[in-house]
Specification:
heterotrimer; A mainly alpha (about 280); B mainly alpha (about 280); C alpha/beta (about 300); B: about 280 residues; mainly alpha; ABC transporter involved in vitamin B12 uptake, BtuC; globular; C: Rossmann fold; 2 domains; 6-stranded mixed β-sheet; 11 helices
Chain lengths: ~280, ~280, ~300
Amino acid sequence: MINPFQFDFMWHAALTGSLIAGVCGVLSCFLVLRGWSLMGDAISHAVLPGIVGAYWLGIPLSLGAFVSGLFCAVASGFVKSTTRVKEDTVMGVIFTGLFAIGLVMISKTPSDIHLDHILYGNILGLTRAQIIESVALGSIVLLLAIAKRKDFLLLGFDGAHARVIGLSTRSSHFIMLTLLALTIVTAMKAAGLILAVAMMVMPGATGRLLTKRLDAMLVTAAMSAVLAVWAGLAVAFYVDGAPGACIVLMQAAILFLAWFFSPTTSTSAAKTPSPHSVAMS
Amino acid sequence: MLASLATLLEPLHYDYMVRALVASLLVGAVGGFLSCFITLRGWSLMGDALSHAIVPGVAVAYLLNLPFSIGAFFSGLLASGAMVLVKQRTKLREDVVIGVVFTTFFAAGLLLASLYPARVDLKTIVLGNILGIAPSDLWQLMAVSAVALGFLFMKWRDLMLVTFDERQAMAIGLPARRLQFLLMILLSATAVAALQTVGALLVVGVLVTPGATAYLLTDRFGKMIAISTAIGGSTGVIGAYASWFFNGATGGCIVTLQTIAFVMVWLFAPKHGILMRR
Amino acid sequence: MNRTSLEVKNVSVRYPGGHQALRDASFELRGGTIAGLVGVNGSGKSTLFKAIMGFLKPTSGSVLINGQPVTTAQKAGLVAYVPQAEEVDWDYPVSVWDVVMMGRYGHMNFLRIPREADKRAVEEALNRVAMWDYRDRQIGELSGGQKKRVFLARALAQGGQLILLDEPFTGVDVKTEESIIDLMRQLRDDGALLLVSTHNLGSVPEFCDEVVLINRTVLAYGATEGVFTLENLSEAFGGVLRHFHFESSTVQSHDGRNVQLLTDDERPLVFGKDGHLEYKDRSGREELVKKRAEEVGP
């Protein structure tokens, strides 16, 4: 049996993928606790017109992706606050709209822009510039997320209390959205636009099942995500399949194992509210 | 002048283009009708999940030379079952469960497509390929649409009561659970039908946007259905027609038009538009 | 016409998880009455309600409406339901007229297209609750009391003989409460049987002719006077009940007899015979208040 990681391209993919996965793992904890899975899905689809637009203008594609992803999040919030349409519907309208516009823009782009790479990821073919960019973005997000983790936790758990003790919920909310958009832009390189949301949900769910404390959850999530990258790449190498899909399937497998062996698997735990939340209501 | 008219009419000279227009009209109209219920019940995430979750089924159907609707159906059923099971057995929030299950399914579909690239046409599944719609596909679509529209047209008042006040519906002896189940079946069937027209990624747009637009234009359920169906059908036809000039990005054109309609209504609707309210 | 009847016979409900919500509950009510279904949260009140509405099948026992099974009575349009305010999506695109028309579904054909008789019934019902002028309003544009009246009009239009009301007075002010009670009395006088689930003890004697008191089973039922006794209520509400004796207050000393006050989840505000505020724990408070008042000065 050949060791897949003796090849340079596999080695690079695994190292870059580990960093990306680690960042996604940390962010996904907040996403899972906050109930923002749909937001992650929406942002990841909405980056498409930004990428094509950036290509047209000759600016970095990641910048375009980031701007249009963030635009989706902010626009959803604004439209929601001005109408009676339900939040999930508003997000559905806006992200599919942006994605559709992206597709129409691509149809008018006579270029070598690789829709396949955008949709499904291209972790084995990352250029040097892309790797440097991922490392830089990933490090910034990771540091910020870890530094602000207590704020994010409180925000998801008890927004009113956060406001009372003087945290600016609006700015925390915005910082979290920004970090989310940045993370999705990096996650796309590994898993593609469609499966980026998996990288943003699976590790957090795994962490949630295995531990009750935030710091432990962050570490568990990040570790499970990194493990999935190595396992997924190896599987992709042996079966000659799509690496992004393999990574996500490995994450799903780890989640399944976590569920199977989780110490707190019980249906009643989900339904019993904590005494604290009762006291606040 | 004459020349430009000829350019405009050119798409209609091709049989496949006419088929595409009819298919888009049907998918848009049925999607528009259903989107009223999806919008009001908050089922958008469910619709999105379903449209991604049927992808591996379609891939398997390609590999086994089965009709792709059968594969899609089983795959959707399996995903729904998995979601219910995980939801019951873990403390994870519902949105997380949905996210986990549908991405797993989609990843499986993607892996299958990458293993057999020659036999599974991933691009068609994900982005749709309405121009490649065969006459037999169209007949199938017409049958599905006729059944769906017929049922919805006859039973929309009952469905209105069931979705508005399930308990009263049951109190007067309506088969509320059965009606909701039928609505879910229709939703799945339409998602499968729309897959070929707009692709898995944009199905949810067709199933959400017309309803959201109509919701801002009226306070009456009957009118909402009429408006939504009309928006869905007309954007379907115009979008498919326009896609002739946009390299066949049919789904993109249809959903872009629908989004433009939503934004215009959001801005200018008489009662609920943000610019008219001041 | 037969008098409406509701018989609940030895109903037990055990949920799939093994939780026994109701054990051997029995009672019987007849038309022309407003009956309160009273119990704390978790007493099986909503389970019993669901069983009567046919949402869940009792593990054992039976519910009969006019001597028939629930489903038969439902098909005949005998059962009407007035939902709790929180259960309704008030942004739903339906008008007052539409909501009341929903009550006529049982009388319509397969396509539910309203005929003259249906329209007349809706008009009559709306006039009766004084909501005819609001018929084209979207339901979210009404006040709390108006909303309740619309749903009562739906029960009227339906011709429901057994009308189930789920916590009808939550989030409603006292004046509206009175107008709803007034409307309920009219329906009672027409021969309907109104079953009202509530945990609000104080208002029960105000509007309930009869009471069904439950805590996992039916503890007592019958005329309000007979059922609302201290012993029954203590048994039904257990530790949740607050019991005020006013031992150290002027309320009891005026004629030597004892005033007792029961409440489930809120403290009552009591004024004494001179119109001053009553409270139990007075030690040190009067001096403190006097001192503070002096500090502020005249």
